[in-house]
């Protein structure tokens, strides 16, 4: 019976721009990576992370993931490359397809861990941010299988069946002869489409659950793993390409079962986990040289010559203030009012007395005369010393030679009144 409706396969998957081949499979992989980074950046920003972190981590994760995916494929299908009549160099032909998702996630996670360590952020927080993006990348990347006409399922007679060209149908032991069971069968289950749609659903599920239940600390990524493995299990059962079997199941089925159980266990054990995550956040501006800028208000005392000058000025001000305080201490204190009343009285009379006390008192003539004498005293001292020298010069020299610490005749070693106040010795000429 001739089938009337089906999904056609592409006539070619490679185009040439001069000597450069452009492969649809590679384009799908690149588009998937771009979509994952774009969605991951948006979700990372929603967590409070700094922009550009997902791109920086992807620089490590993507190459590691590609190598890991290829290694997984080669190891699980080693007979194609290292078995009888195998061609080992074909293991390097990644553009012809053959990337195992589990190897890509495992080694890609190692690259992501390195990137997270370099940025100082949590690998679990980043995994939650990129989980739906990885699912979306898988949904896009699966269309590379469509362009290569590979990884389809069992024969199917339905309008959504995928037509496979004769030269891409199953072969005996890898070819070149067609397998007689499929030589005349043209349409098959489009497993690439099943998985693509399933991955889109997984991405939507993770985004919804994260918003609804605030999945943190790796739980969003665990939900992605659990949901994806469920779909991968039944889709894997439809495929007819060569694969290793263990206890009647394909190797990828066992991998899906183990990862599903591990993801569910992680979700259960961390069901109540909450708290802040280290997402880095927008970094504050730093001073030149990579160090944080100093606070506006000085938290530490100044040091150096300027600080010493300020300290000296403060000491001088303190000495003058102390001298004024001592002079005021000699003045008689106001006597308290009679009958034990507080100074200044009470009521209106007390207020008037307080106002009079607050007014500045004019200086008396005696005060002015005392100030003038204090100003003239340093000038008179040299005159007195000169008279003493003229009257008894020889006696003064003898006394100066015997008395330690005597003042120089020219006044170089005159005592500093400020230091005398503090009781500190004064050195000559200092």
Taking all Cα atoms into account, the compactness measure Rg is: 46 Å
Mean pLDDT score, rounded? 75
Topology as a string of helices (H) and strands (E): EEHHHHHHEEHHEEHEEHHHHH
Strand runs, count? 8
Largest sheet: 2 strands, antiparallel
> Low-confidence segments, ≥5 residues, pLDDT <50?
283-314, 320-352, 378-386, 396-430
What portion of residues belong to β-strands? under 5%
How far apart are the termini? 119 Å
Q: List the total number of helices.
A: 14
Spatially, the strands of the biggest sheet line up as 1-2
**Global outline:** globular
How would you describe the overall organization of this protein?
By secondary structure, the chain is mainly α. It has helices at residues 24-46, 53-76, 79-82, 101-119, 123-141, 143-148, 191-213, 219-236, 251-269, 305-329, 347-358, 365-391, 393-402, 417-422, and strands spanning 14-17, 20-23, 162-163, 187-188, 245-246, 249-250, 286-287, 291-292. Helix content is 55%, strand content 5%. Strands 1-2 form a two-stranded antiparallel ribbon. A two-stranded antiparallel ribbon has the order 3-4. A two-stranded antiparallel sheet has the order 5-6. A hairpin with a 3-residue loop joins strand 7 and strand 8 (291-292). Helix 1 (24-46) crosses helix 2 (53-76) and helix 1 (24-46) runs antiparallel to helix 5. The longest helix has 27 residues, at 365-391. The chain is globular and about 60 Å long. The termini are far apart. Mean pLDDT is 75; it is low at 283-314, 320-352, 378-386 and 396-430.
């Amino acid at each position: 019976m001739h089938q009337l409706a089906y999904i056609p396969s592409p006539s070619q998957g490679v185009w040439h721009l001069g000597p450069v081949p452009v492969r649809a499979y590679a384009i799908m992989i690149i588009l998937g990576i771009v979509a994952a980074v774009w969605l991951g950046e948006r979700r990372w920003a929603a967590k409070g992370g700094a922009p550009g972190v997902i791109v920086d981590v992807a620089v490590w994760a993507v190459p590691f993931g590609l190598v890991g995916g290829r290694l997984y494929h080669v190891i699980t299908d080693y007979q194609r490359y290292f078995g009888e009549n195998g061609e080992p160099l074909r293991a390097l032909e990644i553009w012809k397809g053959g990337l195992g998702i589990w190897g890509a996630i495992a080694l890609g996670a190692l690259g992501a861990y390195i990137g997270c360590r370099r940025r100082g952020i949590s690998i679990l927080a980043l995994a939650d941010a990129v989980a739906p993006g990885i699912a979306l990348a898988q949904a896009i990347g699966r269309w590379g299988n469509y362009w290569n006409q590979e990884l389809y399922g069992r024969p199917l007679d339905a309008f959504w069946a995928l037509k496979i060209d004769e030269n891409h149908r199953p072969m005996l032991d890898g070819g070149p002869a067609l397998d007689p069971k499929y030589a005349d069968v043209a349409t098959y289950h489009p497993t690439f489409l099943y998985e693509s749609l399933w991955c889109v659903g997984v991405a939507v599920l993770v985004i919804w659950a994260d918003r609804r239940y605030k999945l943190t600390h790796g739980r969003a990524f665990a939900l992605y793993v659990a949901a994806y493995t469920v779909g991968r299990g039944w889709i894997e059962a439809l495929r007819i390409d060569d694969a290793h079997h263990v206890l009647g199941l394909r190797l990828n089925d066992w991998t899906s079962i183990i990862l599903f159980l591990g993801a569910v266990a992680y979700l259960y054990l961390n069901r109540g986990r909450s708290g802040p995550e280290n997402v880095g956040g927008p970094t504050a501006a730093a001073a030149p040289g990579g160090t944080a800028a100093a606070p506006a208000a000085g938290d530490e005392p100044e040091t150096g010559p300027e600080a010493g000058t300020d300290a000296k000025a403060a000491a001088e001000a303190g000495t003058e203030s102390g001298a004024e305080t001592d002079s005021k201490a000699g003045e008689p204190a106001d006597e308290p009012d009679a009958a034990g009343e507080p100074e200044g009285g009470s009521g209106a009379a007390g207020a008037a007395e307080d106002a009079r006390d607050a007014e500045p008192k004019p200086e008396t003539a005696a005060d002015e005369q005392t100030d003038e004498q204090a100003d003239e005293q340093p000038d008179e001292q040299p005159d007195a010393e000169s008279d003493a020298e003229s009257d008894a010069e020889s006696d003064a020299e003898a006394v100066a030679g015997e008395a330690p610490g005597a003042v120089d005749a020219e006044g170089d070693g005159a005592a500093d009144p400020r230091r005398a106040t503090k009781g500190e010795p004064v050195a000559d000429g200092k």
